[in-house]
Amino acid sequence: MTYDSGLKYAGIGKRFLAAFIDGIILSLVGTIVNVILAVVLGRGGDGASATQAAGSLVSLLIGWAYFAIQESSPKQATIGKQAMGLVVTDIEGQPISFAKASIRHFSKILSALILMIGYIMALFTEKKQALHDMIAGTLVLQK
Q: Are 139 and 133 a contacting pair, CB within 8 Å?
């Protein structure tokens, strides 16, 4: 999907709702994965530390895969963004690569630091970009 002219930047409200939907999905998946890991690795003693470490690593990988694969796919959006009618593009409105989607995902850590100011920036930037969008060179557009 190409956006040559008349780009319609997504507002923070729709972006927040999309993130909320994605958060619910990832929480459900994370809970299921952690229960499976607890059964497989054990719950007591040294097993609890291993289970917690494995759960954290798996959750990190699942979150990365969830966002990077979907945002670099032909749909250009996670399930939450699709529900809100949003897509992620590069600065020219073109689809993004897996690498760019990965940079965007991990840059969200910086956006969350210091009271979520990196996210709040989307309220004040011309193209409604959050810090992680600026770092990755991406836009979130309304379809």
A: yes
| Inter-CA distances, 136 with 35, 49, 58, 60, Å | 34, 35, 24, 19
Total-model pTM: 0.91
Domain annotation covers residue 1? no
> What digits encode the pLDDT tens for the residues 14-53?
999 999 999 999 999 999 998 898 888 776 666 678 778 8
Range of the domain at 63: 12-142
- Is 58 within the bounds of a domain? yes
Residue 2's pLDDT is what? 45
Q: Is the dihedral of CA 39, 30, 117, 68 positive or negative?
A: positive
Within-domain flag for 105 = yes
Residue 101, CB-side half-sphere exposure with 13 Å CA sphere: 24
Structural domains of the chain, count: 1
